[in-house]
Design a protein that fits this description.
The chain is an alpha/beta fold. The protein has a single domain, classed as TIM Barrel (Alpha-Beta Barrel). Helices cover about 50% and strands about 15% of the residues. It has an 8-stranded parallel sheet with strand order 1-2-3-4-5-6-7-8. β3, α8 and β4 form a beta-alpha-beta unit. α1 runs antiparallel to α15, α5 packs parallel to α7 and α16 runs antiparallel to α17. It is globular. The structure holds hypoxanthine and zinc ion.
Length: about 350
């Protein structure tokens, strides 16, 4: 058995929320083969090892090509249920007490699956997770930004019967060349419908895209946000507003957003007073679930225990739980920090 160092042991027991997790990105190669077999599909790979060996990316698009191909094995509500429950079991083992998970309905409807297969399967998996593990969760529908805004409107329309169980909309996929402005109208509609709004911004895209996400999409939370650090005015704006950033260190490393974890912007973000959280993004593809993101970053940049605790506190503060629920979860963080 490997011995945890003191920081890793502290991280392991710390209650936390995960706010940036693409559920399709939690599909482990073993489960990909299991689903392919039961759905009588042929995969382009011969073995789990061959799949893992293919996970060598030089940018976001490299990853997305493989990630969308992997999602093809998802065919039934049972597949979505089982994928989600597998994620929650791993998350619970990391002391994740609440997760707000993304799904990409267009990845599934564009290959002929009804919206209901993904939505009902995931909602059932979330319910199973709460019953089995006590982990609460919320579902966020992401629009694929490489597709046009009309397609996003169609997706929002298709989601209407589920909107009492979907907390908000997000924006993901290929960032550069697909600025937030492209989705201004559909985000306005989602806001009018009472949905929360989040968007990936500043992962590969420039600070101008981050400004657009704030000014045009009126986001409640920002996914990634790394390149905000290139723009002094933006840093001050994010600090003043205490906008939550859902930062994903191992994703940034695997997609070459940073060259080395030692160069990761989180320490500077914290120093500048930004409201940072740590998350796993697509853990099956990027080599670690949420605790690995905390631990490997802590090891690389030398995070203090207070900084680690602050990011766990931030994860509940930045969630879409009610104020009373947030307070209860944060009290658990404080009790753990005081007792450990
Ligand atoms: N960025 C953009 N789109 C995505 C990602 C990501 O990290 N993961 C899944 N879709
Ligand atoms: Zn993401």
């Amino acid at each position: 058995m490997t011995q945890l160092n003191a920081t890793d042991a502290y991280i392991a027991g710390l209650p936390k929320a995960e706010l940036h997790l693409h559920i399709e990105g939690s599909l482990e190669p073993e489960q990909m083969f299991e689903f392919a077999q039961r759905n009588k599909m042929i995969t382009p790979f011969d073995s789990v090892e061959a799949v893992r060996a293919a996970y060598d990316f030089s940018n976001l698009q490299d990853f997305l090509d493989i990630y969308y191909a992997g999602a093809n094995v998802l065919q039934t509500e049972q597949d979505f249920h089982d994928m989600a429950l597998a994620y929650f079991r791993r998350a619970a083992a990391d002391n994740v007490r609440h997760a707000e998970i993304f799904f990409d309905p267009q990845t599934h409807t564009d290959r002929g699956l009804p919206f209901s297969v993904a939505a009902d399967g995931l909602l059932a998996g979330m319910k199973s997770a709460e019953a089995e593990l006590g982990v609460t969760s919320k579902l966020i529908l992401c629009f694929l930004r490489h597709l046009d805004e009309d397609a996003a409107f169609d997706t929002l329309k298709a989601s209407e019967p589920w909107l009492d169980r979907i907390v908000g909309v997000g924006l993901d996929s290929s960032e550069v060349g697909h600025p937030p402005s492209k989705f201004e109208r559909v985000f306005a509609r989602a806001g009018d419908m009472g949905l929360k709004r989040v968007a990936h911004a500043g992962e590969e895209g420039p600070p101008a895209y981050v400004h657009e996400a704030l000014d045009l999409l009126h986001i409640d939370r920002m996914d990634h946000g790394n390149r905000s650090m290139e723009d002094e005015a933006l840093i001050e704006r994010l600090a003043d507003s205490q906008m939550t950033l859902t930062v994903c260190p191992l994703s940034n490393l695997k997609l070459c957003v940073v060259r080395d974890l030692k160069d990761h912007p989180v320490p500077e973000m914290l120093r500048r007073g930004l409201h940072v959280t740590l998350n796993s993004d697509d853990p099956a593809y990027f080599g670690g679930y949420v605790n690995q993101n905390y631990s490997q970053l802590a090891q690389a940049v030398g995070l203090t225990r207070d900084q680690v605790t602050q990011m766990a506190r931030n994860s509940f503060e930045g969630s879409f739980l009610t104020e009373a629920e947030k307070a209860a979860r944060i009290a658990e963080v404080e009790a753990y920090a005081a007792a450990t």
